[in-house]
Amino acid sequence: MKDAKEIMEILAAYDLTKPFRATAELTGCSHHTVARIVKARDAGADSDQSATREGAHRCVTAQDRGMG
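User: That's the sequence. What structure does it adopt?
Assistant: Structure tokens below.
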């Protein structure tokens, strides 16, 4: 997970270069990471807020598994 300083550096590099891959090369991370951070910013998420998958922490019950 990137800290706030790293995220700000990635966003600043992206604003200068635009392509995810160019930003990734400059900042030493994956272009997938760059894309996730930029998309979170564009969606209005806080820069220090981690992106989680929807429902990732949902409790799975026996009924969900077809056992009940």
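The chain is about 50% helix and 0% strand.
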